[in-house]
Specification:
- The protein is mainly alpha-helical and about 325 residues long.
- It has 2 domains: about 1-185 and about 300-330, Rossmann fold (3-Layer(aba) Sandwich); about 205-295, Tyrosyl-Transfer RNA Synthetase.
- Helix content is about 55%, strand content about 5%.
- The protein has helices at about 20-35, 45-50, 55-75, 90-100, 105-110, 110-120, 125-140, 155-170, 215-225, 245-260, 260-270, 275-300, 305-330; strands spanning about 10-15, 40-45, 80-85, 145-150, 180.
- The protein has a 3-stranded parallel sheet with strand order 1-2-3. A two-stranded parallel ribbon has the order 4-5.
- The protein is globular.
- The structure holds tryptophan (TRP).
Length: about 325
């Protein structure tokens, strides 16, 4: 008899609070696309999370759809992955509230992202910013995933999700599966081109050190030409993350878009200074992103298609989410409708 082995489930989200960067592509979306056959995958646009920082409504709407178009253009096939918009699944907000009641003030106060964001947004330290991790726990736990791929900066939130899930399971029995965070090794952290010790960020508008997925070739080339390499006298392409973080970052990017190892890259650029290396990385990135940009632009014009994707996604996602939420409502003692 044929054995039916169900695939492991994976889930992740990105806030549509800024345009996708080369960093989010290489560190996240590209890896996701490669996993569609091994896992049952759920990916969503975290618009509920985006409003913890004030957003212009028209921009948020546009960026959410652009993000979906870009996910698909990056290779997330809607036939193989469940792609949805977080606010379409009301169960996220509902479970978020419940988990607020199982998240401790002290725990939420210790989150580094909360501390960083409050320092940056002193005029708008709202309650949503504070309870952000309980909503993120709800996003995750609703789908009972095995793996949650996240960047280094989100690991603490996934760890808190464990604490909340264990606390809940400890009181009510095995309601939630305890998921593993999954931080990919290569390309996990693409750094700013002008400040290679800080992550390439989508939220810093004026950051000259970032490349957006949709940037035209001339902008990408300009960014790479002015990338900070290191002020060592060596002027040689060699991987040394501690002493040559700028060069190491460029090598990581080059490796991710060409598939070459660091050793192969070092050999390729023997005797070639940073002045030649930087535009070569730029060109490799331009060529890698060209088909993605063109496909995303084409998809953005096809609103009917995008709508069919997020509607289908919402239908599949809400089926799973509702099952978990119903169980939770029953466990905590709410009267059935
Ligand atoms: N907090 C994540 C970020 O800022 C986005 C996110 C929201 C997320 N909910 C999630 C990621 C659930 C993984 C799982 O990038």
């Amino acid at each position: 008899m044929e054995e039916i082995v169900s695939k492991k489930r994976m889930l992740s989200g990105i806030k549509p609070s800024g345009d996708l960067t080369l960093g989010s592509y290489l560190g996240a979306v590209k890896n996701w696309a490669e996993r569609a056959d091994q896992y049952e995958c759920f990916y969503f646009m975290a618009d509920l999370h985006a409003i913890t920082v004030r957003q212009n409504p028209a921009d948020l709407r546009r960026r959410t759809l652009e993000q979906l178009a870009q996910y698909i253009a990056c290779g997330l096939d809607p036939e193989k992955n469940t792609l949805f918009i977080q606010s379409h699944i009301h169960q996220h907000a509902e479970l978020g509230w419940i988990l607020d009641c199982y998240s401790m003030f002290g725990e939420l106060s210790r989150m580094t992202q909360f501390k960083d964001k409050s320092a940056k947004n002193e005029e708008n330290i709202n309650a949503g910013l504070f309870t952000y991790p309980s909503l993120m726990a709800a996003d995750i736990l609703l789908y009972q995933p095995d793996l949650v791929p996240v960047g280094e900066d989100q690991k603490q939130h996934v760890e808190l999700t464990h604490v909340i899930a264990r606390r809940f399971n400890g009181i009510y029995g095995e309601v939630f599966k305890i998921p593993e965070p999954f931080v990919p090794k290569v390309g996990a952290r693409i750094m700013s081109l002008t400040n290679p010790t800080a992550k390439m960020s989508k939220s810093e508008n004026e950051d000259t050190g970032r490349v957006l997925l949709m940037d035209p070739p001339e902008v990408i080339m300009k960014q790479f030409k002015r990338a900070i390499t290191d002020s060592d006298t060596e002027n040689c392409v060699r991987y040394d993350k501690v002493n040559k973080p700028g060069v190491a970052n460029l090598m990581t990017i080059y490796s991710a878009v060409t598939g070459k190892t660091y050793e192969e890259i070092e050999n390729e650029f023997i005797g070639c200074g940073y002045g030649k290396f930087k535009p070569m990385v730029g060109e490799a990135v331009v060529e890698h992103l060209r088909p993605i940009r063109e496909e995303a632009q084409r998809l953005m014009k096809d609103k009917a298609y995008l709508e069919s994707v997020y509607r289908d996604g919402a239908e599949k996602a809400s089926y799973v989410a509702e099952k978990t939420l119903r169980k939770v409502y029953k466990k905590v003692g709410f009267v059935a409708k």
